């Protein structure tokens, strides 16, 4: 049963209400406060404060400050007027229940609208970022193409200038060669003419005139032998690329050194973990990196359970289970929270799931299996299913025979069963 916080102090103006709620010695967080336009609730187990306000307030702009053992609320009125009291005085139990359910429904609708608006805004931001990135990439691509075109034009001009210089050099060389040939021909003609003038009447012994071959000439066409052909250089060797294909590998070791079966099992588990993280969990997008770790969430839930904040612990275990539903400890710890919150059927489900995952039974998981049997047995007994509860306690005793506490509880359950049978 909750303990109601009766002590409070409030004052008002035409536009606002100021409420002070003493909570000395209690640890309060924002998660303990729930407020809508006409409903205010502060839940700090085992203490509870609840109020149906006299008139609607602006719950969006209203604030709550926590400090020095006091929660100070500043509630802004939707309509400027003085209230006769802080809460509705003539509200019966049915009306209170209706207003409470209506407030919770409005809060759920508001949270859903905010989540949808947040998704739309996020999509708009992603679209804007994509368009900006595409524009930047297009501008960079155009800049690179312009640089390439300028470089191409520059190289083309340099190549044309080089070709022109080569053609001019070839022309000058050709002119020089033709001039040298003409001079040599003229010299030979003059030399031949001089010899003919000297030997007008040849002697008997020299009836046959012999012409000495000119050095560097071959036969009668030696005068033109200076027109040498340019040496033809061979073309350069053509380049080629040898393509080498390797077997595709995820791991750095060679295929001949690997264990294919173990690697495929590891890759399958990694792919399953990635699929789990990329599932439809919109709340994961706003979490920090360590908050996506199931082990970190389990430890956080353990701390909240130790502090008595069972609802927050359940939320932490829920997210850990959604991230990795193959770990037995989040189910086991969540079952303990459900026992504290009197969610007995959920405690039985979580304990059974933990026992299912704690297979095969080995010495390392004995302690966890004992806890799972005891928690499920406790939930059965609180639902007055004593036979099923006794079976779980006896299963726990088989694993841990010397546990006096479990033996004592099992004996109490046997006595309850016997007393029930005698009464019937």
From TrEMBL:
Residues 199-208 have a biased composition (Polar residues). It is found in: Cell projection, Neuron projection; Dynein axonemal particle; Nucleus. It comes from the Eukaryota. This is Dynein axonemal assembly factor 4. It holds the Pfam family CS. One of its GO terms (cellular component) is nucleus. TPR repeats lie at residues 370-403. GO terms for molecular function: nuclear estrogen receptor binding. The keyword Translocase does not apply. Its main location: other. One of its GO terms (biological process) is outer dynein arm assembly. PROSITE patterns: CS, TPR. It comes from Rostratula benghalensis (greater painted-snipe). The keyword Cytoplasm applies.
């Amino acid at each position: 049963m909750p303990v109601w916080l009766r002590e409070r102090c409030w004052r008002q103006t035409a536009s606002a209400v100021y409420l002070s709620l003493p909570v000395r010695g209690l640890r309060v967080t924002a998660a303990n406060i729930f407020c809508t336009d006409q409903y205010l609730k502060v839940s700090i187990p085992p203490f509870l404060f609840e109020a149906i306000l006299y008139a609607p307030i602006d719950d969006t702009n209203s604030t709550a400050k926590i400090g020095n053992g006091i929660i100070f609320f500043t509630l802004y009125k939707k309509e400027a007027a003085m209230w006769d009291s802080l809460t509705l005085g003539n509200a019966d139990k049915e009306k209170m229940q209706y207003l409470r359910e209506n407030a919770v429904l409005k809060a759920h609708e508001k949270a859903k609208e905010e989540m949808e608006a947040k998704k739309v805004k996020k999509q708009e931001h992603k679209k804007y970022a994509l368009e900006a990135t595409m524009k930047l990439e297009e501008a960079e691509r155009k800049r690179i193409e312009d640089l390439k075109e300028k470089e191409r034009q520059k190289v083309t001009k340099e190549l044309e200038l080089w070709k022109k210089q080569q053609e001019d050099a070839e022309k000058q060389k050709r002119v020089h060669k033709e001039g040298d040939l003409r001079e040599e021909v003229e010299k030979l003609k003059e030399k031949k003419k001089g010899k003919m003038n000297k030997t007008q009447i040849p002697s008997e012994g020299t009836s046959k005139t012999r012409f000495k071959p000119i050095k560097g000439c071959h036969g009668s066409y030696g005068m033109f032998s200076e027109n040498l052909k340019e040496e033809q250089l061979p073309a350069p060797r053509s380049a080629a690329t040898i393509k080498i294909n390797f077997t595709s590998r995820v791991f750095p070791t060679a295929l001949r050194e690997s264990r294919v079966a173990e690697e495929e099992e590891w890759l399958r588990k990694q792919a399953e973990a990635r699929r789990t993280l990329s599932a439809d969990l919109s709340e994961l997008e706003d979490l920090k990196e360590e908050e996506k770790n199931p082990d970190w969430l389990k430890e956080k839930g353990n701390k909240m359970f130790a502090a008595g904040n069972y609802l927050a612990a359940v939320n932490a275990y829920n997210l850990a289970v959604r991230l990795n539903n193959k770990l037995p400890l989040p189910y086991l710890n969540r079952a303990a929270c459900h026992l504290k919150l009197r969610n007995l059927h959920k405690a039985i489900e979580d304990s059974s799931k933990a026992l299912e995952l704690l297979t095969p039974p080995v010495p390392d998981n004995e302690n966890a299996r004992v806890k799972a049997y005891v928690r499920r047995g406790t939930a059965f007994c609180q639902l007055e299913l004593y036979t099923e509860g006794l079976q779980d306690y006896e299963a726990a005793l088989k694993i841990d025979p010397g546990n006096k506490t479990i033996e004592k509880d099992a004996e109490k359950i046997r006595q309850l069963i016997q007393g029930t049978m005698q009464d019937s």
